[in-house]
From TrEMBL:
Signal peptide: none annotated. PANTHER family: AB HYDROLASE SUPERFAMILY PROTEIN C4A8.06C, KYNURENINE FORMAMIDASE. This is Alpha/beta hydrolase fold-3 domain-containing protein. Gene3D superfamilies: alpha/beta hydrolase. It holds the Pfam family Abhydrolase_3.
Length: 503
């Protein structure tokens, strides 16, 4: 691949340290070398997975560990991490460690497309009134690394809709919020459905929200991390239909015994040898990789491999890539003799929270406006005014590109490029009132256009009669989805307070 080798090492080592794992960067000699490493290592990130030999390995990995491919370049049609440049290596390492540490996650398709699925996280047995645990540093993306934290967040307060109370922003130094747990009806847990952003482009996927999934599950929530077809590949209608269908799918999910046997237990079972796998390969269409994407010739690959530290749990047999659906229903779990399988709680469908980040907030709020059944809607640095998103040409015309399903046309001099009917239907600002309580979260260090959108949306929503809390605190675009930051701690506290007030 075309990249400075030392820089790749710096990226990998920074992630290893941040996630608390031991790892190393290996420049594989050929496909046989990759196969050998994949057979013996428990967690492997392969970049850029070039050539037909390497792609075949990813279709049928020889071992039973976690295998995550990542393409630094954009690979049209890929269903793994790709197109994020060298930063994609960091995201892939985070995703690989997350999968290794959370093998119990249940992937459930809600449609026939490989991009129509949600990952369901179930919390540990909730305890009412328990303090929220410290954020796991292993689940914290390094969005704030390399710069000083913004002081002054501690002690700020913000109103929480539907409770008559205010939430206090926790201390940045403490990183802990003393708020009620999410427990409510015994045996039933509230649900937070997460809708990722990425300005409606397919390079960005549900792995962006995995850190929040772990954080929210530790707080006592079930979490539904929703993937959907992006408009650059499937059109705008498919995207909005998927978000609606994905939220509706929660009502069809019953209680399920947590999956995720230990890696050792799975390896001991018959049928789990080198050729047994329920993994599906993330492909670049039916013909694997385009040779033009390759850099080091057939069989060559740069790869980072990880080993879990002493506190990391064993791993279940992996699913290959962040966007590849598991089987519709998981197989019964395998556990070591003498260990009881805990009974999973059922989902409390009267306490569903939908939270969208960036463009995902637009999709989430539109679904609510279209009638999705939720108790609370949350915008995290949301793109809430589509007319101005288009007129101001944000993210190089992302709005126009999403609506046209391809490259954005040149901006008009006297008007935007949005269809007036679709603008009215899709822009959260133009769909008010939503009729449900809302929390709008905005970092002051974010794009000033998004700060403008959030402030004007809150004013318009309140004027329309909606109950809205506004949290504008220090932080940037990624801080609002980064566990441990003051702005996320305040957001999680506010969500928890609203949910515990719902009876």
């Amino acid at each position: 691949m075309v990249a400075d080798a030392e820089l790749l090492g710096e990226i990998a080592r920074r992630e290893f340290a941040a996630l608390g794992v031991a790892g190393r960067l290996v420049h594989a000699r050929d496909a046989a070398h990759v196969r050998s490493l994949m057979r013996t290592e428990d967690v492997v990130v392969v970049v850029p997975a070039p050539g037909p030999d390497a792609r075949t390995l990813l279709r049928q990995p020889p071992g039973s560990g976690v295998v995550v491919p990542v393409d630094i370049d954009r690979v049209p049609g890929a269903r793994h991490i790709h197109g994020r440049g060298l930063a994609g290596l960091a995201w892939a390492i985070r995703h690989a460690v997350h999968r290794a540490r959370h093998p119990q996650v249940r992937r459930i398709p809600y449609g026939p497309s490989p991009e129509q699925w949600g990952d369901l996280y179930l919390p540990p047995a909730p305890q009412a009134g328990a303090a929220v645990p410290d954020a796991d540093p292993a689940e914290t993306p390094r969005a704030t690394e390399g710069r000083a934290e913004t002081p002054g967040a501690a002690g700020e307060r913000a109103e929480v809709p539907g409770t008559g109370r205010h939430a206090e922003v926790p201390s940045a130094a403490g990183g802990r919020a003393e708020v009620p747990g999410a427990a409510g009806v015994p045996g039933r847990v509230p649900v937070v459905a997460l809708v990722h952003g990425g300005y409606w482009r397919s390079e960005w996927a549900a792995d962006l929200m995995e850190a929040l999934c772990a954080d929210l599950a530790a707080r006592g929530f079930a979490v539904w991390n929703l993937e959907y077809r992006r408009p650059d590949l499937h059109g705008w209608a498919a995207t909005r239909q998927d978000v609606t269908a994905g939220l509706a799918a929660l009502h069809a999910i019953g209680p399920a015994t947590p999956t995720g046997p230990t890696l050792a237990a799975r390896r001991a079972q018959p049928g789990n040898g080198p050729d047994a796998s329920d993994r599906a390969e993330p492909r670049n269409g039916p013909d694997a990789a385009d040779p033009a994407e390759l850099r080091n010739g057939p069989g060559a690959a740069d790869r980072a491999e990880l080993r879990n530290g002493p506190d990391a749990p064993d791993r279940a047999e992996p699913r290959n890539g962040p966007d590849t659906p598991d089987r519709a229903e998981p197989q019964p779990p395998s556990v070591a003799p003498g260990l009881a399988v805990p009974e999973a709680p059922s989902l409390d469908l009267d306490r569903i929270v939908v939270a969208g980040h960036s463009a995902g907030a637009q999709l989430a709020l539109r679904a609510v406006a279209d009638g999705a059944r939720v108790a609370l809607a949350v915008s995290l640095a949301g793109v809430l005014d589509l007319e101005q998103t288009d007129r101001r040409w944000l993210s190089h015309g992302a709005m126009a590109a999403a609506l046209t399903g391809g490259e954005a046309p040149a901006p008009a001099l006297d008007h935007g490029s949005l269809d007036e009917g679709e603008l009215l239907a899709s822009s959260p600002l133009l769909r008010l009132p939503l009729g449900v309580p809302q929390i709008v979260v905005q970092g002051r260090g974010d794009d000033v256009n998004l700060v403008d959108f959030s402030r004007r949306y809150v004013a318009a929503a309140r004027q329309a009669g909606d109950e809205v809390a506004y949290l504008e605190l220090p932080g940037d675009h990624q801080d609002v989805i980064t566990p441990g930051t003051p702005i996320w701690q305040a957001t999680a506290a506010a969500i928890t307070r609203v949910v515990t007030a719902v009876t």
